[in-house]
Write a structure and sequence with these properties.
The chain is an alpha/beta fold and about 290 residues long. It folds into two domains: about 220 residues, P-loop containing nucleotide triphosphate hydrolases (Rossmann fold), CATH 3.40.50.300; about 55 residues, Alpha-Beta Plaits. About 40% of the residues lie in helices and about 25% in strands. The protein is built from eleven helices and eleven strands. The chain has a nine-stranded mixed beta sheet with strand order 3-6-7-2-8-1-9-10-11, with helices on both faces. It has a two-stranded antiparallel ribbon with strand order 4-5. Helix 1 crosses helix 11 and helix 5 runs parallel beside helix 6. The protein starts with a strand and ends in a 7-residue tail after the last helix.
C-alpha cells in the first residue's frame, strides 16, 4: 500500500481541487481529508456518511461548587483567564492544562473529557473516504488527523486498495506533520508567486526532515512564467521532480462553484488534461518507491 499526501505551504494554491480530481482518476483509491480544522473536500466529492466517531481530543476543567471555598487561587494561576469572577469555567478559554487542579487546596477541580469533534467514514461515487471536523476553538487537530489516517488505512486494507490519497492541511504545523509522517510521497502544490516560492521551500524542508519523497506541481504556472522558471530551477537544483504544470483556467472555478471535480465537470478542458498528465506522472513515479507501510 502506498500513501500520497498533497500539501502546500499555504491555503489557496489549488491543493483540494487537485486532490478531488485525483480521486476521480484513481478510481479504487481511498481518499482522506486531513484538513480537519477547515475541511472542504466533501464539497466536491459529496460523501455519504456511513459511520461517525466522537473525538475526545482535550479536557475541560470542572469546579465542584460544594467543595469550592472561592479562595481565588485557581483564577490567579490560570494563564488563559478561563475561570470567571463567579468561579465558573469558560469552555472556550480553558486549555485543559491541569494547573487549576494542581493548585486547588480543597480538590474542588477536576478535568473531564469533552467532545472535540467528529471523525467520519463515508462513501463517495469515486470510492471510500475518511474525513473529520474539529469543533470551533478546539485543539489537538494533529491527533484528529492521525485518527483520520488510521481510518483510511483500515478502509484500504479492508477493500484491498493499494493507494491512499491524502488532502493535507495548509502550512507546515502540527496537523501537516501528522498528515505526512510515514507516507511514501508528498506532492507540493505551489504557485508562481514570491510567497509561493517561499512556501514551497518550507514544505520541501518538512518532507525532507520526515524522509518523504517529494514531488512538485506548479498550479497556474502561466500567470508568471519567470517565477515558474525560478521554481523549476530551484527544483532541479534540489533534485526534486516537477510532475505537473497546470495553467490558469476559469473553468476550474466554475467546476468548484458547481461542486464537481474539474476532470469530471470539464473533461476536455486544458486544465483537466494537465491534471490527468500530472496524475499519470505521479502514478509512474510512486510505483518505483518502496512502500513504508
Amino acid at each position: 500500500m502506498k500513501q500520497l499526501t498533497i500539501l502546500s505551504g499555504k491555503g489557496g494554491t489549488g491543493k483540494t481541487t487537485i486532490t478531488a480530481s485525483f480521486a476521480v482518476l484513481a478510481k479504487k483509491a481511498v481518499v482522506a481529508d486531513c484538513d480537519v480544522d477547515a475541511p472542504d473536500l466533501h464539497m466536491l466529492l459529496h460523501p455519504k456518511i456511513v459511520k461517525t466517531q466522537n473525538f475526545k481530543g482535550s479536557k475541560l476543567a470542572n469546579i465542584d461548587q460544594e467543595k469550592c471555598v472561592k479562595c481565588g487561587l485557581c483564577r490567579e494561576k490560570c494563564r488563559f483567564d478561563a475561570i470567571t469572577d463567579d468561579f465558573k469555567i469558560n469552555a472556550f478559554s480553558c486549555e485543559g492544562c491541569n494547573v487549576c487542579v494542581i493548585v486547588c487546596p480543597v480538590n474542588a477541580l477536576t478535568l473531564k473529557e469533552r467532545n472535540s469533534g467528529y471523525a467520519y467514514i463515508s462513501k463517495t461515487k469515486y470510492g471510500s473516504m475518511a474525513h473529520a471536523m474539529l469543533n470551533p476553538s478546539e485543539a489537538n487537530s494533529g491527533k484528529l488527523v492521525t485518527l483520520v489516517r488510521q481510518n483510511a488505512k483500515n478502509l484500504a486494507e479492508k477493500e484491498n486498495s493499494d493507494l491512499i490519497v491524502i488532502d493535507g492541511p495548509p502550512g507546515i504545523g502540527c496537523p501537516v506533520i501528522a498528515s505526512v509522517t510515514g507516507v511514501d510521497a508528498g506532492l507540493i502544490v505551489t504557485e508562481p508567486t514570491m510567497s509561493g516560492i517561499h512556501d514551497l521551500e518550507r514544505a520541501l524542508q518538512l518532507l525532507t526532515h520526515f524522509n518523504v519523497h517529494p514531488f512538485v506541481c506548479i498550479n497556474m504556472y502561466d500567470i508568471n512564467k519567470d517565477n515558474t522558471e525560478k521554481i523549476e530551477g530551484f527544483c532541479k537544483e534540489k533534485g526534486v521532480e516537477v510532475v505537473g504544470k497546470i495553467s490558469f483556467n476559469p473553468i476550474v472555478t466554475e467546476a468548484m462553484v458547481n461542486g464537481k471535480p474539474v476532470v469530471e465537470y470539464a473533461p476536455k478542458s486544458d486544465a483537466a488534461e494537465e491534471i490527468r498528465n500530472t496524475w499519470k506522472s505521479i502514478l509512474l513515479a510512486i510505483k518505483t518507491l518502496n512502500p513504508r507501510i
